[in-house]
Automatic annotation (TrEMBL):
This is Sulfate transporter subunit. One of its GO terms (cellular component) is periplasmic space. Belongs to the prokaryotic sulfate-binding protein family. It is found in: Periplasm. It comes from Mycobacterium florentinum.
């Protein structure tokens, strides 16, 4: 039986027996993507390349949008979906494995990466409402029923004997947000950067398993029953607890990060006028009242205050800090924390490398 192993090496290249099947699935999926995720030229098909936990949301969006668009225009769209760790999805669009018509990714910096490589226009944030962020989210805790380890706040995660499940920040937007939220939980409450660094390093040492994405991390926690607490998106927590109400419960920490998943059409891949029209209409739908209502129903926080207020029973007001409280912006956060020789590299390095000796 696999026991949680709270070691830092789970954030480094590592394959446990638990993840062998998942790794093989990723390999086969990546092979399939080469064949499947290229929209047919001249067709009414578009491809949405999205991050890990959005499967249910975009299945519902597609089901509502396709008939509405057909009624308005007479065109029946074929919308393909691809879901995975946000970092891995970005790489697949960059290398052309997936010819995304639109992207709906975990972090603004994910789309900025595509823009810097010339796939998306520099002004992409100005092309849709709310700076192209249709909904927001945050990182919360999922614990075992009754919360036997008494986990209420970020410091509780590094108590002796606490085992944490969180996706790998090298491949997952959820993983990166968990690191950023943990850091900000220290610095936004009066702690120093040095204290935040010590805390995050300790937290990573408590990680029992570090899957490639949010959904596989959730499976490790809920199905394989690894760990005492899972760090995950609010929408994933709501889904998991609803499906496992006898076994799990949701804990909102006193402070967490404001996550801003963003969307954009991929200019380089929609040079055909009709395809461009379809892609733009699809993303514009997310910002309508109907699209906002669907986002709320699936546990995402709509940017329209009135619709968010209607769902306050499931999406309560929270104390969330913005990215500007720990970095200049999302791109700076990515470079500062997850770039080469960034904070994650420093705290993940062996002691000699970390000290520069």
């Amino acid at each position: 039986m696999l026991k949680p192993r709270p070691t830092l090496k789970h954030f480094l290249p590592h394959i446990s027996w638990l993840n062998v099947i998942g790794v093989l699935a990723i390999v086969f999926a990546a092979t399939a993507l080469v064949v499947k995720n290229v929209p047919q030229a001249g067709s009414n098909q578009i491809l949405n390349v999205s991050y890990d936990p959005t499967r249910e949301l975009y299945a519902a969006i597609d089901k509502a949008f396709i008939p509405q668009y057909r009624t308005q225009t007479g065109v029946t769209l074929d919308i393909k979906e691809s879901h995975g760790g946000s970092g891995r999805q970005v790489r697949s669009v960059l290398d052309g494995t997936q010819k995304a018509s639109v992207v709906s990714l975990a972090l603004i910096s994910d789309i900025q990466t595509l823009s810097k490589h010339g796939l998306i226009a520099p002004d992409w944030r100005q092309r849709l409402p709310n700076n192209s962020v249709p909904y927001t989210s945050t990182v919360v805790f999922v614990v075992r029923k009754g919360n036997p380890k008494g986990i209420r706040d970020w410091p509780d995660l590094v108590n002796a004997g606490v085992s944490v499940v969180s996706p790998n920040p090298r491949s997952s937007g959820n993983g990166q947000l968990s690191v950023l939220a943990a850091w900000g939980s220290v610095t936004t409450r009066g702690g120093t950067a040095a204290q935040a660094k010590t805390y995050v390093k300790s937290l990573l040492q408590h990680v029992a398993v570090s899957d490639a994405g949010a959904r596989s991390a959730g499976d490790s926690f809920t199905l394989s029953k690894i760990g005492d607490v899972q760090l995950t998106w609010e929408n994933e927590a709501l889904r998991e607890v609803a499906a496992n109400s006898d076994d799990l419960e949701l804990v909102y920490p006193p402070v967490s990060i404001l996550a801003e998943p963003a969307v954009a059409w991929v200019d380089a891949n929609i040079t055909e006028p009709n395809t461009a029209t379809y892609a733009k209409a699809y993303l514009e739908y997310l910002f309508t009242d109907a699209g906002q209502e669907q986002a709320a129903q699936f546990g995402y926080r709509p940017f329209k205050p009135g619709i968010l207020a209607k769902h306050a029973d499931r999406l309560p007001p929270l104390a969330l800090f913005g990215i500007a409280e720990i970095a200049k912006d999302w791109s700076d956060a990515r470079e500062q924390f997850f770039g080469n020789n960034g904070i994650l590299d420093t705290i993940s390095a062996p002691p000699a490398a970390a000290s520069g000796t």
